[in-house]
């Protein structure tokens, strides 16, 4: 099946089964799901989490418990500015500097409470947490189709802030696990750790993208993302 057909099937299933949670509808987004908090707790029990001091997380609703748990565990959280549109393209949530973790970890609150930083100002990332629409049991991820999650990884890789050994995790509902194989392109980031409310899956390791694939970036995207312009100038 094509990726979009798989997305639609998963979105429909989450809605029809009653598993989907606010915001509604689940379609067109990284879908929130019943048990997201339990999945976050299960992720927090894994050694990759326990050894991490810095986490790069996505801003979507199902990973809100992950972001809150990270701050409560004393971990610094980095989030990308939407569409990497600013020169200072990352937000830093420092647990030592924040008073209201619940407010700071929402989509709107992160921009208010977080510190906006340029790529030279962020620390090395120990763990990446991504949102997913669907994931195969061998770690192939399907996002919502815009490509920003993979692009953020590639930018971090170009900056030397992650490498091949940096684990990438996702929290999903079991209904988002699919049996179909998904062919990963060279720029697609594979999941090393797939956590549901009920279980943990550690797929066999796949090679991660080594950085940006400039052939995939059209002029419009290069022009609208300042960090790409800067990295292109440095190559």
From TrEMBL:
Transmembrane segments: none annotated. Keywords: Ligase. Coiled coil: none annotated. GO terms for molecular function: ligase activity. Pfam families: 5-FTHF_cyc-lig. SUPFAM superfamilies: NagB/RpiA/CoA transferase-like (SSF100950). The keyword Cell inner membrane does not apply. GO terms for cellular component: cytoplasm. This is 5-formyltetrahydrofolate cyclo-ligase. It comes from Natrinema hispanicum. The lineage of its organism: Archaea, Methanobacteriati, Methanobacteriota, Stenosarchaea group, Halobacteria.
């Amino acid at each position: 099946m094509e990726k979009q057909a798989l997305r639609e099937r998963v979105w429909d299933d989450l809605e029809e089964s009653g598993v989907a949670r606010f915001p509604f509808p689940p379609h067109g987004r990284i879908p929130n799901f019943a048990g997201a908090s339990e999945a976050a707790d299960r992720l927090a029990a894994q050694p990759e989490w326990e050894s991490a001091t810095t986490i790069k997380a996505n801003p979507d609703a199902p990973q809100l418990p992950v972001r809150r748990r990270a701050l409560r565990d004393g971990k610094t959280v980095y989030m990308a500015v939407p569409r990497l549109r600013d020169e200072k393209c990352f937000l830093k949530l420092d647990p030592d500097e924040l008073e209201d973790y619940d407010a700071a970890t929402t989509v709107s609150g992160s921009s208010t409470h977080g510190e906006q930083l340029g790529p030279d100002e962020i620390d090395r990332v120990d763990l990446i947490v991504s949102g997913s629409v669907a994931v195969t049991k061998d770690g192939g991820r399907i996002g919502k189709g815009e490509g920003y999650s993979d692009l953020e990884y590639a930018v971090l890789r170009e900056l030397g802030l992650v490498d091949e050994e940096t684990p990438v995790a996702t929290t999903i509902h079991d209904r988002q696990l699919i049996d179909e194989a998904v062919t990963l392109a060279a720029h697609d980031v594979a999941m090393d750790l797939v956590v549901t409310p009920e279980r943990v899956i550690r797929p066999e390791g796949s090679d991660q993208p080594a950085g940006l694939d400039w052939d995939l970036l059209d002029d419009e995207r290069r022009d609208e993302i300042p960090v790409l312009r800067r990295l292109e100038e440095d190559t």
